[in-house]
TrEMBL record:
UniProt xrefs under PANTHER family: AB HYDROLASE-1 DOMAIN-CONTAINING PROTEIN-RELATED, ESTERASE_LIPASE_THIOESTERASE DOMAIN-CONTAINING PROTEIN
Superkingdom in the source lineage: Bacteria
InterPro entries linked: AB_hydrolase_1, AB_hydrolase_fold, Sec-Metab_Biosynth_Hydrolase
Any Pfam family hit: Abhydrolase_6
Residues of the AB hydrolase-1 domain: 3-134
SUPFAM superfamilies recorded: alpha/beta-Hydrolases
Listed name of the protein: Pimeloyl-ACP methyl ester carboxylesterase
Amino acid sequence: MAAVVYIAAFAPDAGESVSSLIANPPPGAPVPPAVDGFLFLDKAKFAAAFAADVRPDLATFMANSQAPWGVAALDGKVTEPAWKAKPSWYLVAADDKMIPPPAQRAMAERAGAVVSEAPGSHAIYVSSPKAVAKVIEQAAHGRRSG
C-alpha cells in the first residue's frame, strides 16, 4: 500500500506553494530576509521556534548545521497533491511554532488524513521519535489508529 505521511508539514493543494501557505507567518518565526537567494533560520531563535523540546546541545547543533532553503523553491506550486491520490496520515505537533497547529489541523482535514496529535515542537521527529514511528507504522499497515 502506498500512503503519504505528513509530520508537522505543509500539505498544499493544487495551485498552492509554501510561499502562499506562509504568507502570514506566525509571530516569532525566525525567518530573516533571504541572502543570495537562500534562507536560513535565525540561529539565536532556532531552539525556541523550531526545536523547543529538543536537548539544548542538540538544538544548537541543528541550528548550526541547517541546510539553506532556496527561495525559488518556496514558490513552486503543487500541480497534483499526493493526498488526493493516496491515503494520508498526518501528525500534528501540538506545540509547533513554525507551522501553527490550527493550520496543520486544517491541512490534514482538507487532505482527509488520519490525524494524530502529540505534544512537540516542529522538530517532533527528533524530540518524540516514537510518536512519529507510530504514525508511520499505522500508514504502512493501513491502520486508522493504535
